[in-house]
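Protein Record: Sequence and Backbone Structure Tokens
======================================================
Tokens: labelled as protein backbone structure tokens, with as many entries as the chain has residues.
Task: work out the structure tokens from the sequence, keeping to the layout shown below.
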Amino acid sequence: MLNRVRRRAWGLSGRLIASYILVTLAVVVLVEALVLGYQAPQLVNDAQLRAQVIATAQSYSQQLTQHYPRGVPAGTVLGVPVLGGPEHGGKMAMAPPNPYGSTLAVPATIGPIYGHQAVTAVVAIDAGGTVVASSAPSRYPSGQAAASELPAAAIAAGHNIGKPGGSGSTPYGSVTWSVWPVGSGYVYVQAPYSTGFINPLRVWDELGQQPGSGALRSGAYALLLAIVPVGVLFGLLASRRIVRRVRRLELATLAVAEGDYTVTLPASGRDEVGRLEANFTTMTRQLGSALDAERQRATGDARAAERARIAREVHDAISQHLFGLRMIAAGMRRADPGHQQARAIERISEEALRDMQALLIELRPASLDRAGLAPALQEICTTYQDRLGVTVDASLDDVIVPAPVEHALLRITQEA
């Protein structure tokens, strides 16, 4: 039982099952990586980036309320000056979330903003929905209607503070935003987030740091563990037929190895195994035919050898006795010409010798192996004429016929 289990584990079935499990695991891991890379960034932004945006909006709300109790003056540039920005002849870049604090570093961009990507910005908006001040005057100028540049949900939240933040789309890309009251208006803070592919390992690590993400991570692990029995099941179902066909072929080869050439396998398909089964059946038939022919040839050789042995014994024993008897009868006839018994014995001895020579010719026929059919037939005719005094007129031409036909013609000539 243990050997059977071990043979199955290391056999074709076990390897197919292992390959199914590995391939399925690889596919699931790849799908999970793609999901993490493309879909999980939004979860990370909603958790980490939104908290930073809300904290930044709340901080700006408190600072603007303290510095401008009568309202933010129109045209004020908000944010933190950035060295190397457009106002200094450099190239502006989007400010990433601050990894060392709970708020964002919002750059004050005085010069023009090139491109159409969303930027990290803070905008002060009055009660009428008009931009009063911003950190990017070229993008959000004073006096412009905020509804044309900001997400509709942010405008609605600014007029009726119901939620501090959310995510939405602007003419310049997707952003995470938050609004907080400042006097009769409100302050709006946004930070762009990427909807493209992000390193799945980084996303997985960030999800592990977020509260409430344990169920998501546990579900991913559970899915990977569930792949093992599913892969085993699919491997067994997929390999069951092919393994059964291979085992049947194995038993057939063992039978042939033991000498059974009557084994045949029906072609169970048009694939490689099916063609192998058909070729195996053809091989066994050819081997059986060759073996039968070899057995017949061996039987014929044995018979020829036995006939040759009998012919030698007859020639060495009986023929010599008959020859001696004839010589004695001939001597007696010459000594007494009127001795009728001696004459009869001599005549009977000569006939017996002639019949014995004919029998020896039958027992030791001419061979086809040396010269072919025509010379063998000529040898038979000559032998009958020389030994028995039978006149045979032979007109022979060389022909090409199969070996069995040659033997049959030789035997027919002898019988004739």
